[in-house]
Each structure stands twice: as structure tokens, then as C-alpha cells.
Amino acid sequence: MRITWLQWMRSPARLGFVFYLTCVLPIGVALMTFNSASHELGLAEATFVALGLNLVLGAGIICREREDGVIATVLSRPIRRSTYVLAKWLALALASWAGTLLFIALQCLIFYFSYWHPIDLLLILKATAECAFLAFGLAATMVALSSWAPSYGDLVLYGVAWVFLMMISSFVEVLETIPIAPNSLMTLFRPAAASLHHLSEALFAILMPMVNLPIAHGLWLHTLIMYMSNLFGALLFAIWWLNRKEITYGG
Amino acid sequence: MVAELRERWLGASADDRTNASPRWLVLITVALIAARSIIFQYEQMHLTQPVQRIRWYTHEAASRAIFKNRKPALLFFSHGNTCQECKNMESDLQETAVAEEINRDYVPLKVIDPSPDGLPAPKDVENLKQNYNAWRIPRMVVVPPEMWDVPAEWLDSYQLPDVSPGGMFTPNSDSDRIPLIVKSSADWHPDPLKVGNVDWIAPEKALQRASDAKPALLFFARSLDRHCDVVRSEIFGDDEIAAVIKKQFLPAFVVSHQRQNRPDSDETKRMLARFNIRMFPCLIVTSPSNPDQVLTGFAGNKETLQFLEQAHN
Amino acid sequence: MSISVRREKVVKALDGISLEIKSGEAVGIIGPNGAGKTTLMGCLLGFLNPDSGKILIDGKAPDSLSVRSKIGYVPERLSFQRNIQIQELLAMHYELARQPALNCRSKIEELLNVVGLEQKHWNLPIEKCSRGMLQRVALAQALVGTPKYLFLDEPTSGVDPGGVIEITKLLTKIRSFGITLVLNSHQLDQVERICDRVVFVRHGKVQTNEGLQQEGKKHALYLRFADVAANGGDLVQRLRTLSGEFGLELVEAGSTHAQFMVANDDDNLRLIRTLIDGGFPLVEVAPRHSKLERMFINNNDPDRESSL
Predict the structure, then answer these.
(1) Confidence of residue B117 (pLDDT cuts 50, 70, 90)
(2) Residue from B282, B296, B301, B284 nearest B249 by CA
(3) C101 in a domain, yes or no?
(4) A27: contact with B, CB 8 A cutoff
(5) From the CA of B290, how many Å to the nearest CA of chain A?
């Protein structure tokens, strides 16, 4: 985990992106969204910072090492492949959450020194918790994609999945809103709409594993089960795939 | 024995192999997926008949309740039972706490559009869809009492926000449950002290302090009027015009809500009657000794500046 | 172990390989390109799974934790984590090898001294290391945790001749620690110097598996003589006479050189003594090919005459 962080800190490209997302973006967000009348801190953007950090830092997190042959020397050590995957996941999750915390802290500082108005602590705690959920969940998704895809294919796969999701959502929208004559062929597609709707919801939950707080009364178990099943499922998939993969380490 | 059990079930693996999946992770994931499947099945079984906690109004009853109680309307546009997404959204609304709040603070009205089933929509449903831009269903709209039953052409470009749950870009939503915040009516009734770059004062004060050297400049506007909006933001937002007004006039801004279900204040009524205002927007320059100078309708920056210079001279 | 591996449906990468490597032994694996040496190495390390058969190291599968803690591995492709320094890389491997953190720094420095890396390079980023330095770093990381078994895959690939000599010396030194070595290399003289036994692999099968001290087949001995004119007499005629008289097998003779077939060291000694006693102006004696070269050539083309 430490070595992964060290590598990120010494990579100029990644460090540049992280600096932009965590230090430059708060200023832009402050200019666009700060409103002293409503005391809007603009913390909703923290979600996108967590997403951006996960993608920037997580690109090629496992697949790059596998393609380069680096993984062979690591796995020749007395270390379980599952430990390797879990360490990568933790490193990515903690790093992106830390970056988001930095973003939130800077946002609050700018707000406070602009308006000299006390900041709603509950709002900050809420944003921090939501970003933690997203950071850990999305890190699991990235690690799962990375264990499977070839070099930097995890990033490409993530983008392709989003495009696919948009296509399904649009199709479902069309199916559910356009008037369909009772005896037309389009009625055959009606039952598919419900299934596609579920598929798009499931895919969205994997691509953006969020938990919006506060969770409505009676729904907390449902929400947490959905989130945790996605997270652990992704991790298990990553471990399972790496376990069965033969390491080609030659030239 | 405890240590042995712990190692067996919580340790990464009972055996020595590097490519064994951690047992604890497998067990937790299987349990979660099983729980998820059970929840999904339960939802499927119970979604067809959502518990009805919300007391839906009919259209006529809703109109009466809105005007009597001055509560906002909560319009829920749905395609009915054939639409899964609509059923999902309605079941969200029927959650106990949410339903209680809706019943208490809103006038809920369910608008069913049966067109996906090939049936024609009733006229009032079409009107409501048009009024509140409900082309993507399901959709929820919160309508302040002032906006209720306002003709559609007046509502053009005054879009009410989509407060449907789950929308990624839903403004002011705190969660993916119902955002129980009514968009502030301040948006629809612009603060007279903050129109453009001019420092407006109260109309009565402007009239009292007006002199021949520094006459009163009265700007009459009404809400839900596009021309008035443009004059407000573009004409009085112009720095040159604002500087001229500041130097040479005592500006006052009077807004009428005649296009909304909201009575004008007494002061507004007096001002409208005194100057016999029939058209909006309307600019009047008045001073004790000189006749009133009037500019009605929309005029651009140049014409407005010319009017002001002539009126002052 | 006795294993078979089928890589793709039509290619059998390893076919019925059966090997036993004793503790403390140094075994060289040689063979032409595409013989399956890399695949064999992968199987030994537990990176590749044989379709049939079993591999056991100390009685356990190679991919078990206890075995992994006893092995060191030098890959052919020297890829290490980017953006880190040499000492950091070794510290990472030290931690992965579950060594006590207390002596980490001193142990790493000791390893870097063993592999002969200069102190001024110890904090160099991996990307700035030369090929030779990377080989030393690879050896150092393989030695982390004092392994019992060392697997080396082309440890001198791409290294200049000076570097090859240095690394060969290093491996000989490592060998003296009693570590079991499995060396896959195309440098035959290196294998000959370091290994006790050599396994020749071709088309996925073991062709030869013999100790390097074993007597080989008959091979050609090359001899060079001083200028005959100065020494008088027809060299070729004299050599022919001598070979007939003393039962030596003359293969080729020229004005200043000749080749005899010999089977072993005794034959060598007899030939040399006979030539010197016969007054021949012998200035150089050398085998035409090294022992492993002969093995390589013979195994690669078994139909070729042993005139070599």
C-alpha cells in the first residue's frame, strides 16, 4: 500500500491531476456556487472529485503491473493474491477519500474566509461520509476491472460501461414514454423495459456506488445491503480472477 | 479451539495456497447477494399494490384546497400501473414519513397519463402536462399557490424545477427520497431592492423626495412577464444607465402580481391607480413642477438612455 | 516432478517432463528457443498450472506460502515498480518476505554490497538504472529473506561481456552459500561454471539430464603447431605415421594444425605426451567446442556426426 502511494506521489501526471481536483477545483466551485444567502457550500461537487480521483489514481492499478511483468516479482513472495488485491483496493480508496477530504476542507476554508459565516458541521460530516462510501465502492469497481482488463483497459471499460448505461437508460425512457398502439409490434418490447430498467439501475449502482444520506427510515438495511453486496462482489471478482490467471512473466 | 476456529473461518484460508480466496470474503459476499435477492423478490411481490398512505386529491378538490389553505400543490405525473418506474417512484412517496409530510404540507394530486397504453389522455391531463412540462414521466412538480392555474403562455420560460427523486441533477435535493423543499417563492417575486445595478428606494419615498433637479423614476413591472424581466436585468443592469439614474433620478420599482394568484400590496395598488398603468413594462419620470414623462413597452438601452436624458432635461 | 503443459490447443509446451532436483544442487536448464524452458520455469514458480502432473518443492506445491518464503526469483524481464528507488524496492520486498523490520536497513545494505552495487547508486530511481545495475538489483531482491531456492531466468540477458563475468562470479559466490540454484541461461560457459547438472530441453521434452562431471562422448581436440619449415619435415605425414603407430584417431591435418578425436582426459594426456615425445612443435591444445556446446549441438541435431 505504501509503495503504491509513493509511486502516485512521484508520478507527475497523476500528481498534477490530483492537485487540480483537490486544490484548483475548490476555487472554481466557490466562484460558481457560493451563495451567502443560502449558505450553500457547494459540497455536491465533492462526489465528482471522489470519482475523478478514483479514475486518475486507479487507472492501470493492477493491469499495468501485470502487463509490465512487475506483478511476477511481487507474487513470487509469500503473499496471497487476495492480499495483493485488497491492498490495492485500500490504497486507492484511502487516497481518493483523503483527496476528497482535502477538497472539502479547502472549500470550507474559502467559504469561511469569504463570508465569515459559521459552517454547518452536519453538512460537512454528511459530505465526508457520502464521499467515503463512493471512494471505497468505486475503488472496488476499479480494482475489479483492472484485474480483468489489459493495460489501462480498466479506464476504457469504465467509460464503455457508462456509454452502455446511457444507451439502456435512453431506450427504457423511449419505451416507457412514447405512446404505443395496443396491437403494434412495440408492445413486445414493453416487458423488456422493466428488465432493462433493473439492469440499468444495477449497472449504475456498480459504476457509481453511492449512498445518499440521510437514508430514509426503513430503507437503511436495503441501501446498505445493496452497497455492500456491490463492494464485496467486486472485490471477490477481482480476487477470483487474479487467482485463476496464470502469470506470464517472460519477455 | 477458538483460535483454530477463527483461523479456519476468518483466516484467509485453511490451506497454505497463495491463490485461495479469503473465506470470510466469500461468506460475506454470498450472504449479501442472498439478502439482495430476497429483497428484490420482496419488492417485486409488493410493488404491484403500493400501500396508499397519501390522500390524493381530485383536480377540482385540489384547486379549492390550494386557494383555501395556501399550500403548494405536489403534482405526481404517472403512467399508472403499467409503468415500473412510476410504481417505484410512487412507492418511494408512500413511505410513512414521506407520506405524512406530503399530506401535512402539500396538496397532492396524481395525474395519470394513459398514452403509453394507446389511450388518449384527458384534456385536463394534457393541459397540466403542457403547463408543467411533464414530457418525461414519471415526474414530480411542486407548484406554489401563486402559480396554480396560471395560463400556460404566462408560464413559458418560467420552468418549475423537476423535484423527482433519483434525478442526478435535481436542484436542492438532499437525498434521493422526496426533497421536501419548496423552491423559494423569492425566485418568482424578484426582490425590488435587487433589480439590476440600480439602488432602488421605496416608491412613496421617491415621490416625497422628488424635485425638479432630481425627479423620481418609477419603473412599473409585473411578474411572469418576459419583457419586464429583460428590462430588469439588461436595461437596469447596464452600468451606464445605472450611473445616469444614480446621478440624476430617485429610482423606485413597483411590481404587480396580477398574473399570479396573489393580491398586490396596497402601496402597489395606489401607485398603479395613481399613474393609470395599463401596459408593462412602464417607465415614468415625475417631478413636482413638470409633466410626467412616460415610456411604455420594451425599449433598448439606447432608447432608454435617450428617454432618461430628455426626461431630465 | 512430472508434468505436462499444453499452452494452446495445438502446441504442447511441455511433454512428460520428469525431474528431481536435490537440495543444494545447481541445475542449469538449456535448450533452443521455444523449447519450453520459460514455461518450465513458470511451472516451477507456481505461475503456470500444468495440465497434468505435480510439482513439489519441499513436499509442497510451489504456490504455497511456506514455499514462497523460501524462494528467490530473478525474472528474465527486469520490470520493477516505477517511481521508486532501489533501496525502497528492496525494503518493499523485505516487508513482503515477512522479515523483521528491525534490521531492514542493514540487511538491505548488506545485500547491495553482496551483489556489488556501488553505494552512490543505492538511492537511484529504478528508471535510471542501467541493465547491469538492474540485474544486480534483481539478484539482491531475489536474495532478500535468505532463500533456500533461487530461480534465475536469463540473469545475464542483454548484459555486456564484462557484466556477464561479474554476474557469473556473483552466482558462484551465491552458490557457495548452499542455495539450490535453478538457472535458465543461454550462456553455456556460465552454466558450465556454476552448475552441477544440466538439463537439455527440446520440444517440451528433456533430451539430456546429466552431471557436468560425467564423461562425454568422443569429441574433437584441436592442436596448433609452430611453423613446420623451421622445425623440418612434413607435418601431415608425420602426424599420420604417429596416429597409425600409437592408435590415435586423426580427423584432420593441415600445415600448422590438426584435429584428433578423444573420448576423455586420459586420451587427451596420451595424445599430448605422444606428440611432445615425438618432437612435434605443439604450441596450443583446446577442445573444438565446450562440453555444453557439444551437448547443445548434439541434442539439437542428433543426426550430426560426432566429428565435432
Answers:
(1) low
(2) B284
(3) yes
(4) no
(5) 42
Rounded CA-CA distance C298/A217 in Å is 81
Model confidence band, residue B195 (pLDDT cutoffs 50, 70, 90): low
- A250 within domain boundaries: no
Q: Touching check for A187 and chain C: CB below 8 Å?
A: no
Residue A249 lies in a domain: no
Residues of B with Cβ-Cβ distance to A79 under 8 angstroms = 18
Residue B213 pLDDT grade (very low, low, confident, very high; cuts 50, 70, 90): confident
C37 with C177, same domain: the answer is yes
- Assigned fold of B192-312: Glutaredoxin (3.40.30)
Q: What is the CATH number of the domain that holds C125?
A: 3.40.50.300
List of chain B residues whose C-beta atoms are within 8 Å of the C-beta of residue C64: 15-18
Tell me the per-residue pLDDT of A91-136, one tens digit each, with 9 for 90 and over: 999 999 998 898 888 888 887 777 666 677 887 888 888 889 999 9
Cis omega (within 30 of 0) for bond into B281: yes
First to last CA, chain C: 34
> Is there a contact between A69 and C77 if contact means CB atoms under 8 Å apart?
yes
The CATH number corresponding to B59-187 among 3.40.710.10, 3.40.1190.20, 3.40.30.10, 3.40.50.360 equals 3.40.30.10
Q: Of A31-35, B199-203, C17-21, where does mean pLDDT reach its minimum?
A: A31-35
Q: Taking each helix axis from N to C terminus, what angle separates A220-244 and B23-47, rounded to the nearest 10 degrees?
A: 140
Size of interface A-B (CB pairs under 8 A): 99
Q: Which tens digits make up the pLDDT trace of B23-67?
A: 888 899 999 989 888 887 877 666 555 567 888 898 888 888 887
Asked whether residue A161 carries a pLDDT value surpassing 70, the answer given is yes
Q: Report CA dihedral (C170, C175, C181, C182) to the nearest 10 degrees.
A: 50
Q: Residues C115, C245: one domain?
A: no
Of A190, A219, A236, the CB nearest to B29: A236
Q: Are residues C207 and C223 in the same domain?
A: no
* Average pLDDT along chain B: 75
Q: Which residue of chain B is at minimal alpha-carbon distance from A200?
A: B85
**By residue range, what is the domain housing residue A169?**
2-244
Say whether B16 and C46 touch across the interface (CB within 8 A). no
Complex ipTM, two decimals? 0.77
Q: Say what the alpha-carbon torsion angle B127, B132, B137, B141 is, to the nearest 10 degrees.
A: -130
pTM of this prediction exceeds 0.90: no
